[in-house]
Amino acid sequence: MSVFSRRAATASVESPEFVGMAGRESAIIGDSMAGATDAPLGSGEPALRVQRASVEIGGTRILDDVSFDAAPGEVVALIGPNGAGKSTLLSVVTGDQAVTTGAVEIAGRPLADWSLRELGRRRAVLQQQNGVFFPFTVREVVAMGRAPWQGTPRDADDDRVVEESIALTETTRFRDRPLPSLSGGERARASLARILAQETGILLLDEPTAALDLRHQEDVLRIARDRARAGDCVVVVLHDLSLAAAYADRIVLISAGRVVADGAPDAVLTPALLGSVYEVEVEVIRHPVTGTAIVLPRRATEPAIESPKHAATTAAIPSESGESMCVSTLEETP
């Protein structure tokens, strides 16, 4: 019996706490399977498609006639202001939010026609927040990603896949700690390891970089980029427009529940369009090495520190990898 099976047996998989922690894929052990569903997508076939989807909640229209698709081998970033409908659109694709009108397809098949177990083998979901109320260790949480493959020949790979996912997300150091004891960034990396262990062809990521430091933000999106190169489809909600420009093949800009632009980063990330949607003037400059867009708000205020009395000093401190790095500080001079 796998780690997941042993520990899951001690908690009700119907409880909201358990589902919130491990995601929908961990609550499908008893779901019936109507045949193998992990066959690769056909050539040129979208991995997922949303057609004219609208969502009304409490009389308020959250999404309004939204259409978009995403293909294997592609990273699609969903961007837009707070409350624009990005997370709602992602939840429509995952099946967690029903559409009022419109249609959603996974691999050319209506979303409603897939069982939970089948969906668990097609797409993995990294939610924006996961409530954690059980003291599962990081390794046990990562092993939950293997739930859709229980009872199939692929469950023989469970231990290998779990260990590879832990190594890839750099969670080895705290693999045996209970998830509730970790920082927000550490929990985010453990959750990413879980969905990588799920081994699906579609990754749906809701603000995966929100709790992460600078290096781990880059690491997460490099992983997403690598998965796309390997043929997977990645849809990611991002607030950092410069990260979207650096790692996405396409950007879908959403405002007030509608898609206002869908295209290559350079076509979407223009000062005029972003200024109109975000209601702030921005500058778009080029990264000096990669040439990708960097989006900066136009600021009229002076810097907070402009005194010649402050001189920079540096100190060597160990990094998480064990190597030393220099850190600059400000020191007042006479």
Automatic annotation (TrEMBL):
Residues 305-334 are annotated as: Disordered. Residues 48-281 form the ABC transporter domain. GO terms for molecular function: ATP binding; ATP hydrolysis activity. It comes from the Bacteria. Keywords: ATP-binding, Nucleotide-binding, Translocase, Transport. This is Iron complex transport system ATP-binding protein. It comes from Herbiconiux ginsengi.
